[in-house]
Amino acid sequence: MSVVRPSARARMRTAGAVIITVVLASLLAACVTPPAPEPTSAATPTPTPTPPANSLTALRITEITEQQCPATVTADVLSELPETAANAIDFLAGSAQCGLIGLVAQAPAHAPTFISPLQYTAPCTTAAMVTVWAHYDDDLIFGNPTIANAIAAGQCVRTLFITGSDAGMGAQYATNREAGIRAAYDVVRGTTGEWLDTTVTLRSGLTVTATAPVGDNRVVLLFVRLPDGGLDAGGFSATGHQALPQLVSGSVQSITTIDAGREVTLAALEGAIAEMVAAFAPQTVLAHMTSLSPLSEGDHPDHSATGTLVSNLVDQGLISSATVQYAVGYPSEWNAVNLGGTELQLKLDAFAAYAMHDSVLKCSTAQGCLGVRKFGAWLQRQYLVADAEIVRP
């Protein structure tokens, strides 16, 4: 059988057609746009919940704003206050001190935590000194010029007076002496003006009267008003023979104030001093000479009992020993005169302003007070002893 072979020309035409087909297919493939990928939807982020401004519950806020202290702060304001302020208001409402809530709502705390209502009723934004005395003139006699120098330097001085300094002579005599101590601090401050009194119940449970000059936060005086114990530590018949040394020694469990008859325990008194120190973080704590020292012998029993309150708190670790100084009291008269010049003159002027309100002293000028037996000797001296120098048994 014979095979018919395509001619060369036909083979060339077929090959050309194949080549053209391949080229066209390639060109078409290059011109076709691949389909876009299917869009994916982005996940919606879950918002982080805003934490509450403070830990007060809705129920507690309702109790404060509608039951305990209505019209003092709104629920909206209370829910937005920082934790420190909210804790302060929580305490004030719970202790029936609604009148102080406005102070908290309007001003920030000067400490990261709520320690005491004194942070708001006696705020201090500078270096502080806490002083603790038995009677209304003890700071002027035994604590100066140290206190006056601190005030002149712009420090805050926060002073606690434990007794009402009544000397068994009644409430009016005590009130007069309080007026005298305000007048003395006006001299030290270099200006006179109105003083504002505020009743404050501390977290320790002690209720005190805080008095401060309007517009000058350098000075705040706190009055406890326990009975004056007298030179024999037996108290006076007018106040039931109650005395601070009896409380400190443990021979009585409580004594009552001469103004409102409030019962005060040793724990409440120690707690108040510790609370003051914690609230103000003072550079210096100044008090009477503790009974631990032989330098307290011959001093007023109220003085040494007051100093012992402070040294006990040092021993309990509630006050830093490095901050504490004790003032030598009555026995200082046997030491050499160590004050003079402008320091002594300011001390005398302040004491004379006080003495005008103290009917026992019978002096109203600096030179006149220098002539008063014993007082003239004490006023010309000041001797302080650091806690580190006190020998413990």
Proportion of residues in β-strands: 5-15%
The shape is elongated
Radius of gyration based on Cα positions: 39 Å
Order of helices and strands: HHHHHHEHHEHEEEHEEHEHEHHHE
Helix content: 25-40%
Largest sheet: 8 strands, mixed
Count of alpha/pi helices: 15
User: What distance lies between the first and last C-alpha atoms, to the nearest angstrom?
Assistant: 142 Å
Strand count: 10
Strand arrangement, major sheet:
3-4-5-2-1-8-9-10
Q: Low-confidence segments, ≥5 residues, pLDDT <50?
A: 1-34
Give average pLDDT, whole number: 90
By secondary-structure content and strand pairing, the structural class works out as alpha/beta
Write a structural description.
It contains 15 helices and ten strands. α9 packs antiparallel against α13. Residues 1-34 have low confidence and may be disordered. It has helices at 8-31, 58-68, 75-80, 83-94, 101-106, 118-121, 138-142, 146-152, 171-189, 244-249, 266-280, 301-315, 341-355, 366-370, 375-379; strands spanning 128-133, 156-163, 195-201, 207-213, 219-226, 254-256, 263-265, 284-288, 324-327, 384-386. With 393 residues, it is of the alpha/beta class. It is 39% helix and 14% strand.
